[in-house]
Amino acid sequence: MKVFKFGGASVKDAEGVKNIADVLEFTGYKETFMVISAMGKTTNALETVVELYFEKGDYVSKIKEIEEQHLKIAKDLFQDSEEVFYSINQFFEDINAFLRRNKSPNYNFVYDQVVCCGELISTKIVSAYLNSIGIENTWIDVRDFIKTDDTYREGKINWSETEKNFANLEKGPFYITQGFLGSDPNFFTTTLGREGSDYTAAIIAYCLDAESMTIWKDVPGVMNADPRFFDDAQLLNKISYEEAIELAYYGASVIHPKTMQPLRQKEIPFYVKSFLNPENPGTEIQKELRLDPFLPCYIVKKDQNLITLTTKDFSFITEDKISDIFNRLYALKINVNMMQNSAISLSLCLEDKYLHLDEFLLNVESGYKIDYEKNVSLYTLRHFDEKSSYSFYKGKELLRQIIKNTLQIIVKE
Ligand code: ADP
Ligand code: ASP
Ligand code: MG
User: Fold this and answer.
1) With CB atoms counted within 10 Å of each terminal CB, which end of the chain scores lower, N or C?
2) For ligand 2, is residue 40 a contact (CB within 6 Å)?
3) How much distance in Å is there from the Cα of 32 to the middle of ligand 3?
4) Beta carbon of 195 within 6 Å of any ligand 2 atom
5) Is 196 in the pocket of ligand 2 (CB under 6 A)?
6) pLDDT at 390
7) Does this entry carry the keyword Cell division (predicted)?
8) What is the pLDDT of residue 290?
9) What is the pLDDT of residue 391?
């Protein structure tokens, strides 16, 4: 089977949904498994619903607003389809009913039970539309297949259960399912981390021993820089899994970093292509492909924090101290994107997704003098040469590090 994944940008409006049909007519869709994300920025909007719910704000109006957006897309796609309108309305009724009845104070649990609706609704709409124009497909609930533990918002895959579930699936039809979702041992919904739909496609490709996987994007493929920030970004025709995993790890957000590992294990060819120009080859990612063309690659990670801890008593930064600091960071789910130490100080570039940085600083302030710069950017340049390492960032340089062919600079913009 082939696995396709269409992200939020590809289904942000009715035109986008119609375009998927065009892509499928071009590529064919026999023995295909298609993973779809929530429409446009729906996940962000549903995150706001959860925030409002916990702040005792007006979450009901926000839900209504999201429902209206989906109804508008459905009205543009269907002249008259009572069933689709009814099922959209039902999803939003269910969110309201769940929140009214909910007693759990667990933010992450509630988040997953609410935010999952973005993917459930978008796949319902796309599936119904494709069926209505003769592209027959079978909608499935991915939560019956992808099993995880109960780490809400970051579900860890139970591979053996998941593989077993996919083994029972009949191989023939054209399937449509949701990205980003799974379910825990008690069948509560889990999510796999923001932007996790690429990863879902890779999990499915792995379980089905797929012949290839293609993710369809609003860019020509993987480029040597994000075209939103670099005007002269160029398409990379071929890269290896290793290069792709490094680029994604350093922050090239075109592919979710977890995507490559399952594909590489089974050596499944992976393509990143443009949903606007499906006839173009895009980027091919396979084993041991040499970067072609061989270019320096630029990656920017925004919203970072540079923290320098210096021992108050002038003692060395020893392994036990580093271990204690990292254990605290791990417990607070703060990611370390770069580190550097000297005799008595340790500098860390930290990403604070769950807003726990202040708690961390309180934890360590008795032993260390703390210097910090919030809102810095981490610039990474892979395969750098003398020419490319000049002037690829603007702003004041705070820290620089070179590891093999990778140069990293922390900048105050
Ligand atoms: P999806 O619709 O699947 O969610 P994303 O928006 O997550 O897609 O990813 C596509 C975006 O990734 C592009 O619009 C582009 O701005 C950004 N991007 C970041 N780095 C790169 C890169 N190296 N090459 C191409 N696109 C990149
Ligand atoms: N809809 C989810 C998100 O926006 C998952 C995804 O799009 O990959 O994070
Ligand atoms: Mg995305």
Assistant:
1) C
2) no
3) 21
4) yes
5) yes
6) 64
7) no
8) 87
9) 63
